[in-house]
Amino acid sequence: MSKLALAVHGGAWEIPAEAAAACRAGVGRALARGWEVLERGGAAVEACEQAVLVLEDDPMFDAGVGSHLNRDGCVQLDAILMDGRTLKAGAVAAVERLRNPIHVARLVLERSEHMLLVGPGAEQFAVEMGVSLCNPSELVIAREVERWYQEKHKASAGPPLRARSAGTVGAVALDAAGNLAAATSTGGTGCKYPGRVGDSCLIGCGCYADNRAGAVSATGYGEHIMKVVLAKTVSDLVGAGAEPQAAAEKALATLGERTEGMGGLIVIDKSGRVGAAFTTPNMACAFRTSDSSEAVVRL
Ligand code: ASP
Known about the structure:
Layout: E1 5-13, H1 17-39, H2 44-56, E2 77-83, E3 88-95, H3 101-111, E4 116-118, H4 119-128, H5 142-152, E5 169-174, E6 180-186, E7 207-209, E8 214-220, H6 222-228, H7 230-239, H8 244-259, E9 263-269, E10 274-278, E11 282-289, E12 296-298
Parallel strand pairs: 3-4
Antiparallel strand pairs: 1-5, 1-11, 2-3, 2-6, 5-6, 7-8, 8-9, 9-10, 11-12
Helix pairs in contact: 1-2, 2-3, 6-8, 7-8
């Protein structure tokens, strides 16, 4: 039986002091849910899905309910789940009527020949799989309407947008059978152009999992992350023998050097070693392995 390992994150930005406790509690709950799955012998894909479901349902984070609004004041969600055993991913992008896009990403992974479905096609697939669509307004919360309004009227008073950013969410896991998986889910960037799709749901950019190397979930400005194919870069470094922590730090240094971008990521290698790094002021994250009886929660 392989060692178990699980890590989750709630986005790498600047987390204001008043939001810190809720972010910490949120990633802790997500870790606990995913860990239960691994402990009862469940698969890494299931653990990642369950952990991300908790974070999508938590309005503290930029995923599912509570996501940032786009330029037109709508929520458009992207999510991906990748299985390191098969290298198959399931992803959805620019969906507006799915409360839990990570669940539909799992359905794409397991019940579709395709890897990425977008917009109305993704929603139609969800319905065919028995998922109910939500009203788009159910995903919108007052904090995000206020943020959107301030962004639209930049001259108004208030702290800069970035200082109040909620984050993209993700999870990576190694199960008892030795399989790795990774998941990432996001509402994307605030006031993004309608139809914009970021790195989060793109295989190799915001997420990657390969049983021969590692599982990675990344966060940060998608237009930077895509340029360096961040998650695959980390997985390749780990596959070539780097320690997960060193690989995470090296890839983020490359992101900074080549794009001037900041970000964060979590990584687990095939032996269950965990790395977590960020070049933003904060990243909420939590991890646990079967080597220790305690979860580690960091901000
Ligand atoms: N990577 C996400 C995007 O650009 C945003 C984030 O991670 O906060 O859509």
